[in-house]
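Holo model, 6-O-phosphono-alpha-D-fructofuranose. Inputs:
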Amino acid sequence: MSKFITLERFINEEENKFPNATGNFSAILHDLSLAAKLVWREVSKAGLVNILGNTEKINTSGDTIKKLDEFADETIYKAMDHGGHLCVMASEENEDILLIPDGYKKGKYVLLYDPLDGSSNIDANITIGSIFCIYKRISESGDGNLNDCLQKGFKQVAAGYVVYGTSTMFVYTTGNGVHGFTLDPSVGEFLLSHENIQVPKKGKIYSINEGNSNDWSNEMKNYINYLKEENKADSRPYSLRYIGSLVGDFHRTLLYGGIFCYPADKKNKNGKLRLMYEGNPMSMIIENAGGKCSNGKMSILEIQPTSLHERTPLFLGSKEDIEILEKFLQKEN
Ligand code: P6P
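Output:
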């Protein structure tokens, strides 16, 4: 009989390794796993109830908010606002920070999240996901503030995502390895299925939207052409895999290796993806799985944020693939 380790048991056993742990941090992860199940329940029946279609509202990134986006945003906020462990939150779907309602205790942690990333794929039943990261507050007490949110990525104490795909997985790290839990819908539990995920040192897959190639820098074009050249000893040419959903493209890169790229281009000098709730959490995860993150020049985790929704060129993947990419982009201005 294989050992059933639920996410709850794993979190508790991890906490027990730290004698001074207060349990607050574990409680946040427990609450997030509940939110994940509530979002999964709606995502998994999206095609069955008239929840598809747009709400005609526009979010900070100019994307039309689809009903599932809104549902996921509200669900995560409501699952997290009363536990007493957070002092402030921030979401991709909300321009400003999200305070903890009056009457609820303000805790010592900060939560940033993208409630449903890849939502343009919802109607096509393609993999989408929720992304989160947790920081310790900087301010002393009371309501948290923007400064508590705008911390460098290396200050994150946890990062994770839920990937709603052929199965639903909760993947997270607290700095002690990256662990994946697959939802067993028959019991409603996330069960440990991928302990201590390690990304291959080098891969054979590259993931990028080639439709933007005319707008890339010459250095970026040279790098992608390099991946397409024949060199059997070097596993080139690489294969292209891209679904246009960060969580799905990232999850494959984490497990299979290679490189995910969303570079800057002539139209978007900082690329498209957001630093605080896409770049930073995925960077903490890939680095804790033995891979590497970069904006082309430096670690994503070293970037000093200046606004909640700022964008960054984003490269994530196998250590050796990122190192080769950075050599190609060194000359890029
Ligand atoms: P493009 C989805 O809208 C998203 O924010 C990420 O999930 C994904 O990686 C990216 O945008 C896809 O962007 O320009 O290739 O459609």
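Residues 7-194 form a domain with the Fructose-1,6-Bisphosphatase; Chain A, domain 1 fold (CATH 3.30.540.10). The chain has a mean pLDDT of 93.
Archived with the compound record.
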